[in-house]
Amino acid sequence: DAGVTQSPTHLIKTRGQHVTLRCSPISGHKSVSWYQQVLGQGPQFIFQYYEKEERGRGNFPDRFSARQFPNYSSELNVNALLLGDSALYLCASSFTRVVETQYFGPGTRLLVL
Amino acid sequence: RKEVEQDPGPFNVPEGATVAFNCTYSNSASQSFFWYRQDCRKEPKLLMSVYSSGNEDGRFTAQLNRASQYISLLIRDSKLSDSATYLCVVNGLTGGGNKLTFGTGTQLKVEL
């Protein structure tokens, strides 16, 4: 079975630009969560989506937004990019929205110049 | 205070050694607990869940102490392939769903 997939794998943007990252969960999983991992730190929770609705939001500015589609795939959007947004963006999926194991995709490595 | 605290290391140990990692968490309402392993420039992968009764998977043993809000991971007979960053992870409710809260990770280097 395919695991969580993310695209693109790498991305280079300049300050002020906008970026869209994509995630497809494991087949049958209905919940998608997004995390940001900057170098030397653990991943930080950004959003959780379940059944196309936002179920949780971390401490990130409104420049960050996301959505989930009927097929449970998800997009993370970041506007007005800052240098500090350079990070590995991880998507994780789980079957439901409640407390359980989440499985991570390979991530999208974003560099903002 | 950070929600999940770990010693960042690095822990440099010889092959065959036993090494222990510790972690503390601040939210007493946390629901479940995990250790994830992360190799350099890769995604985190679930190593094992952590229960109050303790659980063992081969050379790995994890333990949870809810009263002290403390989680541990013991690795016996270390292998070169165990070199990685070990992330202590706490799963808690957000109101409408759940989120994982990660520690900064503890780096392990197993040497010949």
Tally of strands of chain B: 11
- Helix and strand composition category of chain A: mainly beta
- Rg from alpha-carbon coordinates of chain A: 13 Å
What global shape of chain A is seen? globular
Description:
- The complex is a heterodimer of chains A (113) and B (112).
- With 113 residues, chain A is mainly beta.
- Chain A contains no helices and 11 strands.
- Chain A is 0% helix and 50% strand.
- The mean pLDDT of chain A is 94.
- Chain B is mostly beta strands.
- Helices cover 0% and strands 56% of the residues of chain B.
- Chain B has no helices and 11 strands.
- Chain B has strands at residues 4-6, 11-14, 19-25, 32-38, 45-50, 55-57, 60-65, 70-75, 84-93, 98-102, 106-111.
- In chain B, strands 2, 4, 5, 9, 10 and 11 form a 6-stranded mixed β-sheet that branches. A 5-stranded antiparallel β-sheet of chain B has the order 1-3-8-7-6, with no helix packed on it.
- The model of chain B has no long low-confidence stretch (mean pLDDT 93).
- Classes of the chains: A mainly beta (113), B mainly beta (112).
What's the short version?
Chain A has no helices and 11 strands. Chain A is an all-beta fold and 113 residues long.
Summary keywords:
A: 113 residues; mainly beta; 7-stranded mixed β-sheet; 11 strands; 50% strand; B: 112 residues; 6-stranded mixed β-sheet; 5-stranded antiparallel β-sheet; 56% strand
Annotate the secondary structure layout.
The complex is a heterodimer of chains A (113) and B (112).
Chain A: E1 5-7, E2 10-13, E3 19-24, E4 31-37, E5 44-50, E6 53-57, E7 64-68, E8 74-78, E9 87-94, E10 103-104, E11 108-112
Parallel strand pairs in A: 2-11
Antiparallel strand pairs in A: 1-3, 3-8, 4-5, 4-9, 5-6, 7-8, 9-10, 9-11
Chain B: E1 4-6, E2 11-14, E3 19-25, E4 32-38, E5 45-50, E6 55-57, E7 60-65, E8 70-75, E9 84-93, E10 98-102, E11 106-111
Parallel strand pairs in B: 2-11
Antiparallel strand pairs in B: 1-3, 3-8, 4-5, 4-9, 6-7, 7-8, 9-10, 9-11
